[in-house]
Amino acid sequence: MSLIKSAPSLCFALLLAGCSPASKAQSQQVPSSMDMAAVNSNALVEISESRAFTLLKAALEEQLVSDLECLSFDSESDIPAGSTAAFWEFAAREIHNEKCGGDPETSPVRDRYKVSSNGEVLIYDFPTGEYTTF
Fold first, then answer.
1. Is 110 contained in some domain?
2. How do residues 42-53 score in pLDDT, each as one tens digit?
3. Nearest 5°: phi and psi at 51?
4. Which of 76, 113, 73 has the alpha carbon at shortest distance from 93?
5. CATH code of the domain in which 60 resides
6. Is 24 among the domain residues?
7. Mean pLDDT of 15-27
8. What whole-number distance in Å separates Cα of residue 111 and Cα of residue 122?
9. 15, containing H or E segment
């Protein structure tokens, strides 16, 4: 019988514990890279898709990507044509033809890039599922 009487008190205590303020360690967590990107995106000016692609191509040439002529690029941003944005995302697809080789019936994505209006180019890291510095 005492177990039945103490059950409501136990439930109330658990509810209070769940609603209590976060511990000091929880309240001082370091923001994730996604949180930082959201904060930084507010401070960036917006650019067109063509400007973002120009920045991406310049970064690829600077990194001496040797087979640029065997890559095509698709925008993966959900932004209407003619608009501007702080970030643009692109997929680099392999061109398969006589010159570049490969099965001409396929065009796999080799890399994904995110280009910010400040010129920063990030590359998608498939194992972690996050963009990292290119």
1. yes
2. 567 999 999 999
3. -65, -40
4. 73
5. 3.10.450
6. no
7. 42
8. 10
9. helix 2-19
CA distance 91 to 109: 6
- For the whole model, what pTM was predicted? 0.65
Give one word for 117, left, alpha or beta, with left for phi > 0 and alpha for psi -120 to 50. Answer: alpha
Give me the domain span that covers residue 122: 31-133
Q: Indicate the residue type of 8.
A: P
Dist CA 120 CA 109 (whole Å): 21
Tell me the sheet residues that pair with 111: 92
Which structure tokens are listed for 37? Answer: 């990107």
Question: Of the candidates 50, 37, 43, 45, which has an alpha carbon nearest to the alpha carbon of residue 122?
Answer: 37
List residues bridging with 90 in a β-sheet. Answer: 75, 113
In terms of Cβ atoms closer than 10 Å to its own Cβ (0-12, 13-18, 19+), residue 115 is: buried
Q: Look at residue 75 and tell me if it is in a domain.
A: yes
